[in-house]
Specification:
single chain, alpha+beta, Arc Repressor Mutant, subunit A, three-stranded antiparallel sheet, 5 strands, globular
């Protein structure tokens, strides 16, 4: 993965975010990895817009997919939960969508 063109194309903030998401994966919780933009910004030491762009970058290139979108309504906070495409999910093998990414897609 680290030598793939997709990984090499990532910004530093997206690479850091991928590490943070990977650290939350325990081998069984793919699809149930919670991380909000606000929390990611704190972990990465960046602004919320930068963290948001990092999530978008990881999604667009195929490293992650949102499983359940987060929301903040009726005073109930709910972080988006993420699927790491490099790992199996829901009994299916890893899709590794990032391996099909090409620079022309950027």
């Amino acid at each position: 993965m680290l030598t793939s063109p997709a990984y090499r194309s990532l910004s530093c903030s997206a690479r850091c975010l991928l590490v943070e998401l990977g650290a939350r994966y325990n081998g069984e919780n793919n699809g149930h990895i919670p991380l909000s933009v606000r929390e990611a910004a704190g972990l990465l030491g960046c602004s919320q817009p930068t963290a948001c762009k990092a999530f978008q970058e990881l999604e667009n290139i195929g490293f992650i997919r949102a499983h359940e979108k987060g929301a903040f309504h009726l005073k109930v906070r709910h972080s988006t939960t993420w699927i790491l495409t490099e790992h199996p999910y829901a009994g299916q093998p890893a899709t590794k969508d990032f391996m099909r990414w090409e620079a022309a897609n950027a």
